[in-house]
Amino acid sequence: MNSISIIGAGIGGLSLANILKQQTLDFSIYESAPEIKPVGAGIIMAINAMQIFDKLGLKEKIERAGNKIHGITITDESLKSISKTNILELEKKYNSCNVAIHRASLQKILAENIGLEKIQTGHKLLHIEKKDHFHLAFENGNTVESKIVFGADGIQSKVRNQLLQTGTIRNAGQKCWRGWVNFDLPEQYHQEAMEMWGKGKRFGFVKMSDKSLYWYALVNEKHFSQDLNLLSVFKDFNGLVLEILQATPPEHIILNDITDLSPIPKWYSEHLCLIGDAAHATTPNMGQGACQAIEDAYIIGELLKTHKEYDKIFQEFQAIRRKKVDYIVRTSRKIGEISQWERGNSIRNFLMRFIPESVNQKLGEKIIRLEK
Ligand SMILES: Cc1cc2nc3c(=O)[nH]c(=O)nc-3n(C[C@H](O)[C@H](O)[C@H](O)COP(=O)(O)OP(=O)(O)OC[C@H]3O[C@@H](n4cnc5c(N)ncnc54)[C@H](O)[C@@H]3O)c2cc1C
What we know:
Layout: E1 2-7, H1 11-22, E2 28-30, E3 42-45, H2 47-55, H3 59-65, E4 67-69, E5 71-75, E6 81-86, H4 88-94, E7 98-102, H5 103-114, E8 119-120, E9 125-130, E10 134-138, E11 143-151, H6 158-164, E12 169-182, E13 192-197, E14 201-207, E15 212-220, H7 230-233, H8 239-247, E16 253-261, E17 268-269, E18 272-274, H9 277-280, H10 289-306, H11 310-339, H12 345-352, H13 357-368
Helix pairs in contact: 1-5, 1-10, 10-11
The protein binds flavin-adenine dinucleotide.
Residues 7-13, 30-33, 43-44, 123-125, 152-154, 158, 176, 178, 216, 256, 276-278, 284, 287-291, 293 line the site of flavin-adenine dinucleotide (FAD).
């Protein structure tokens, strides 16, 4: 029988596995995909996540595989700044910086550090039942028994649906394309994440490595059709956007709905705990979904240092994490709504210029400060 089973080898499950490994705890991790093949293009690991990777001895590796980002700038369609957040001071204070990285590179580092042989790929959980301990049944016919289970199986979590029977997935009414491309970005954008706000649409881009950049584009769902051409959607944006889109191979582009999970009352039950998107998926407007999954793993690890009883750990874990996570889910939804306005967007962009940078920095620090 397994002592600890983790369902899902996404960023949350892999981070937790790294934390458990550091504490020399025995665990098994099960992933439905036939190989560790991340969905999506790039991702930003903010200072909160990077502090945790530092404690795991992975910070420098991740920095080398990605690109350090010292600021986030929101602009209008013409790439004129309307809001800036410079994080150099926070970087000094927390001895870490934001890193933009290809998801494949990040997951490779996390998976290799625990040892690829620890990850049972091709194990899609079909059924989980609690008797005196957990009985797990996988699509490939394998069955496993386990004392403790972590559900790190994402927003559609089978673990959550079958054992906690809660959670409503909310559609934010926006379509999001993500892409990555080898592209020679002008130097002024090398250390900044850029997001351009237009009328009912947004375009963001960030350098991820020496050669490549990651971009995303959002439109309100009511304007979406299967044959929508992004070049014509963004023809009124700065020419750089069209250059990036034209250079991107179609096979490097994915399309998703923007969704989140309505806050659920409890992330745990006896000997079982959800982490990451399975517990509290957020819209991506603050770039914090995966960072929060990593914080979950970190807090579980900190509690394991002083507690022996898992049910106490899970209870305390939720008590520590709840406030920050709820704040992020709520605020991210709000930012998503405002940034996609179709009316009043010019006034919005005008007024944004008056928000002092100190306000953005304060908001930033609230998010990147670890709770323990
Ligand atoms: C457009 C967009 C941009 C984003 N940008 C950022 C960003 O810049 N920074 C950031 O921090 N976050 C970002 N996020 C959020 C981030 O992608 C998620 O929050 C993060 O991936 C959640 O990690 P997770 O491990 O909890 O879940 P997931 O990544 O969903 O991983 C779950 C894993 O479980 C596996 N699985 C699912 N069901 C089963 C099953 N039945 N049996 C076995 N395995 C199963 C899946 O295959 C998967 O590998 C973004 C999200 C989107 C949509």
